[in-house]
Amino acid sequence: MPHHEFECSSCIPERKSHAVVKGEGEDLTSCLPEGHLLTIPGTISERGCAYCGAKHVIGTPMKDAIHMSHGPVGCTYDTWHTKRYISDNDNFQLKYTYATDMKESHVVFGGGDLLKKNIIEAFKAHPTINRMTVYQTCASALIGDDMEAIARDVLKEMPDKDIFVCNSPGFAGPSQSGGHHKINIAWIHEKVGTVEPKITSDYVINYVGDYNIQGDCEIMCDYFKRMGIQVLSSFTGNGSYDELRSMHGAHLNVLECARSAEYICNELRVKYGIPRLDIDGFGFEPLSDSLMKVARFFGLEDRAQAIIDEETARWKPELDWYKKRLTGVKVCLWPGGSKLWHWANVIHEEMGVEVVSLYTKFGHQGDMEKGVARAQPGTLAIDDPNELEGIEAMDKLKPDVIFTGMRPGEVAKKRRVQYLNAHAYHNGPYKGYEGWVRFARDIYNAAFSPIHQLSGIDISRDPIATDKGFMTRKMISDVKLIPEEANVEGERPYTGDFDCVTKLRGKVYDPELSRNHEQAAV
C-alpha cells in the first residue's frame, strides 16, 4: 500500500488515506491521496476558509473597487496585504481595506444599518472610486443580513455607483476553494454582460485565473500584445471592475489557474459560447507551448515563434547556469492548488531540483492527479496537512528548500530549512522567461545562502575558529561552487570548524572562480 501514516497523526487513523508515497510503476488509481473533503476534526488544519478564497484570492486583485467585508474586523485583517497583487493605479486595493466591524450587539439586533452606513462612508472617503464589492462573512450570514437589499438602497441614493455582493461565508465550503466557486458563479450571473466592451483588435481574449502577483499578469499580457492580441480583461489581477463586466465580448478565454477560475470559463462557454484554452506561464517549455496554442487559435504562429525565439535566446543561458548548480537540490513543493502541478515536473526538468514532497491544502482530486502524475517516484504527496505533519515530513525528507506560504514557511525556518514564498513570491514575478530565471535565482540564493548556513552554529556550544574570521568577508561575495575533488593546487577548500558553513552537499566555496553577480542575477 502506498499510504503514508504520520506518527503525529496515528491517533487519527482517517489521516492515513490523505498521504501517499508514489512508488515505481504505480498508476493514479493506487497512489492518490483523498482530497477536497471536509477537514477531519482534531487535525488542526491550516486551510483558508471560503470567505478567504472569495475575497483574498479572487476579489481583492480587482484594482479599482472598494472591497468591503461585512463582519468582524479580524476577517478583514486576515485577508489584507499578505499577497502582492500589484496594480497600475498606485496599488489602491493594497493600501486600503474595509470592514463594518460587527460587534455582539449587531449579531443580536442586526447589522443592516451598520453596513449601509459603512458603504456610504467608504464611497465618500474615495470620491474617485465608484465601484464596490461587499463580502459576506460567517457572522453576517448566520444572522441573515440581506446585503443585496441594502446595496439596492444605497444605489438609489448614489446612482453613479455599482455594487457587487458576494455571499461566501467562511463555512460555505470545505476550504477556500469553495469561495473561488462562489465568487466566480456570482460574477458571471450578476455582472458579466452589463457593460459593452471596446474592441480594438481582431483577436480578443480574457486572461483568466491570474492575479498579477508581483507583476505576473503584466508579463503575460505583454506577450499577448506583442502577438497583436487584445486582452479585454484579466480575471482578476490588475483587472478593472467594468472591464470584467464586459468579459462576454472576448473570442477566447485563456485560463491560467484551473483551480481558482475554471468555473467562470465554463459558465462563459455555456452562456456565451466562448471557448476555453488552458495554458501554463511557468517554465520555458510549458510557456512556449502555451503561447503557440493561443497563436494557433488565431492563426498567429509566426508572431508567437518570434517571441519564443527572442526570449529563449536571451534567458536560456542564464537558466542553464542555475541548473548546473541546482541539480540535486531537494525541495518540498507545498504551494496552492494549480502550482502543485504547474511546477511539479518542470522545476525538475529545467532546473534540476528533486521534488521530494508535494502537498495542497485546498486542491481538488484533479490537482492531485496532475501533480502526482508529474512527480518522481518516491515523492510524498499530502492532502490538507497540519503543522505537525509538515514538521515530521521535513525531519524525515531533509529538504534544502520549501516552496510554500508564510505560515508553514515560518515553521520551516525554525527547523533550519529555507523557504520561498510560493504564494506571494520572494523576488518575482516568476512567470515568463525572465521570471522563471528569477525563480531559479531565488532557489539558488536560498539553497546556498552563507548566512543561513551560519545560523546552524550555536555560539554557546560550538567552537569558533577566531583565526578564520576573514571567511565571513569572502562569503558575502557571490561565488561559484565546485566539487571538492576538483580542487587543484592553490585552490584549497575551506575546512575545519567552519565546515558546516562552507561545505554544502559535497561542494565548497571557491572565491577564485567567483562570478560577477550582475551577470548571474536577473
From TrEMBL:
Its cofactor is [8Fe-7S] cluster. It comes from the Bacteria. Pfam families: Oxidored_nitro (PF00148). Keywords: ATP-binding, Iron, Iron-sulfur, Metal-binding, Nitrogen fixation, Nucleotide-binding, Oxidoreductase. Its EC number is 1.18.6.1. GO terms for molecular function: ATP binding; iron-sulfur cluster binding; metal ion binding; nitrogenase activity. Residues 49-446 form the Nitrogenase/oxidoreductase component domain. InterPro entries: Nase/OxRdtase_comp1, Nase_asu, Nase_comp1_asu, Nase_comp1_CS, Nase_Fe-Fe_asu. It catalyses: N2 + 8 reduced [2Fe-2S]-[ferredoxin] + 16 ATP + 16 H2O = H2 + 8 oxidized [2Fe-2S]-[ferredoxin] + 2 NH4(+) + 16 ADP + 16 phosphate + 6 H(+). PANTHER family: NITROGENASE MOLYBDENUM-IRON PROTEIN ALPHA CHAIN. Belongs to the NifD/NifK/NifE/NifN family. Hexamer of two alpha, two beta, and two delta chains. This is Nitrogenase protein alpha chain. It comes from Sulfurospirillum halorespirans DSM 13726.
